[in-house]
Write a structure and sequence with these properties.
The chain is mainly α and 264 residues long. The protein has 14 helices and two strands, in the order ααααββαααααααααα. A hairpin with a 2-residue loop joins strand 1 and strand 2. Helix 2 packs antiparallel against helix 3. The chain is elongated, with a radius of gyration of 42 Å.
């Protein structure tokens, strides 16, 4: 036994039971002092030899190279996972459960798009796209149902995209409106500033005013409005109601500013 331990063998390979060895050590302490360190070192070497076959592998069982394998810890062991096999499994997809299949069917019946329940990160996510595609391939009846339920999705998607484009145009126009309003004198009444902004938009549509020149030429349109108002005898502020605000964004009306002598 001692010769086997010195050669790096374990008790199991020497066909010695631990209880038997313990009894022997109690009877022969001088042998225990040498045997116990050897047993511990041989056991450690044996554990390292257990994974030698896997560590020395250069290809997986399907013949893919393990040079770029995914390395991670699993239950206390270092594991290598073939990336090629992992990609194939991901594309193939898994098996869809009955519960998830019922939710997917109900979503399609209510007009949901495929991306709404297969897109990762969405609140309506139900299943991976690869798993959903695999179920379609393996079930022709379900595939026909999906094709029938989503036949109008392309038209709906185009309509949604066109609506977003229109909304963007309207949003830009509103932003331009508020920018132009901000360039005018703050003492002008809101209705007068609306008229001037409308004149600026008309000039841009006609091509007589470039969008980049609005800031430098806004005073021209204010002056043109004042000249036109004076020509018709209405003043630069135009005909205004006594219920109109006295100043921009003011709660005081023109009627509140009129003196009593005027009424007399």
């Amino acid at each position: 036994m001692m010769a086997g331990l010195r050669d790096g063998r374990t008790l199991r390979t020497l066909y010695v039971r631990r209880a038997q060895f313990k009894t022997y050590c109690e009877a022969h302490p001088e042998h225990a002092q040498e045997a116990l360190p050897l047993i511990e070192a041989n056991a450690k070497s044996a554990r390292l030899r257990k994974g030698e076959r896997l560590r020395s592998k250069t290809h997986c069982k399907h013949g893919h190279s393990l040079v770029d394998a995914r390395i991670y810890f699993c239950k206390g062991y270092i594991k290598r996972d073939c990336r090629s096999c992992w990609k194939i499994r991901s594309k193939r997809g898994g098996a869809i459960t009955t519960e998830v299949l019922g939710k997917v069917t109900a979503a399609l019946e209510h007009g949901a798009t495929i991306g709404s329940f297969t897109g990762a990160g969405r609140s309506t996510y139900l299943v991976m796209h690869s798993t959903f595609s695999r179920h379609r391939r393996e079930n022709p009846k379900f595939d026909r149902f999906v094709s029938e339920a989503t036949k109008d999705n392309k038209r709906k998607g185009q309509k949604l995209r066109f609506q977003r484009v229109r909304n963007a145009v309207v949003r830009d126009q509103k932003n331009d409106y508020y920018k132009i309003i901000g360039l005018m004198p703050s003492n002008l009444p809101p209705d007068i500033r609306d008229d001037i902004a409308q004149s600026i938009f008309v000039a841009m549509l006609e091509g007589s005013l470039r969008r980049d020149d609005v800031r430098s030429r806004v005073q021209e349109f204010v002056a043109a409005h004042n000249r036109d108002a004076n020509k018709h005898g209405t003043g630069k502020y135009g005909l205004r109601s006594i219920d109109a605000p006295a100043f921009a964004e003011s709660s005081t009306t023109l009627g509140d500013t009129i003196s009593r002598g005027l009424w007399d």
